[in-house]
Amino acid sequence: MSSVIMETELKNLTLLGRGKVRDIYDLGDRLLIVATDRISAFDVVMPNPIPDKGRVLTQLSRFWFELTQEIIPNHLISTDVRDFPPECQGYEEVLTGRSMLVLKSKPLPVECV
C-alpha cells in the first residue's frame, strides 16, 4: 500500500490554493492539480484520509476528460508526470497517478454529489 497524502509540499512550486481534496500549483500559463487522499463531506475535511483516494479521483477525471474531449474541449494537458515541466520533476513519487497538468481556464462552479 502506498503512503497517504493529506497535503502536498512541493517546495519549488507556487501553491495557488488548497481545495477540499486538491492542491493547486501555479505554473505560469498552466496549473498542476494534485488530488490528495483527504475526504470531505458537507464542506468539512475529515481527519482520516483514504489511501490512494487521490489516485482514484485523478484516474476518474482523466477517463471522463479523455472520453468527452471530442464533444467539448477541456483543460487537461497530461496526467503523465514525464510530460510535466522541469520544475515538477523530482516529485514523481508524490505526483504519479494523482496529478494533472492543465491549462489555466475559468472554472465552471458545478459540484456533483
Describe the structure in brief:
The chain is an alpha+beta fold and 113 residues long.
Describe the structure.
It is globular, with a radius of gyration of 14 Å. The relative contact order is 0.21. It has one domain (14-103): Phosphorylase Kinase, domain 1. The strands form two sheets. The protein has a five-stranded antiparallel β-sheet, covered by helices on one side. Strands 4-5 form a two-stranded antiparallel ribbon. The chain has helices spanning 53-68, 92-95; strands at 14-18, 22-26, 30-35, 40-41, 44-45, 76-78, 99-103. The protein is built from two helices and seven strands. The protein has 113 residues and is an alpha+beta fold. Helices cover 18% and strands 25% of the residues. The longest helix has 16 residues, at 53-68.
Mean pLDDT: 93
* CATH architecture descriptor text: 2-Layer Sandwich
**Rg over C-alpha atoms, rounded to the nearest angstrom:** 14 Å
By DSSP (H or I, 4+ residues per run), the number of helices equals 2
Principal-axis shape equals globular
Layout: helices, strands, pairs:
Layout: E1 14-18, E2 22-26, E3 30-35, E4 40-41, E5 44-45, H1 53-68, E6 76-78, H2 92-95, E7 99-103
Antiparallel strand pairs: 1-2, 2-3, 3-7, 4-5, 6-7
Search tags:
5-stranded antiparallel sheet, alpha+beta, Phosphorylase Kinase, domain 1, 2 helices, 113 residues
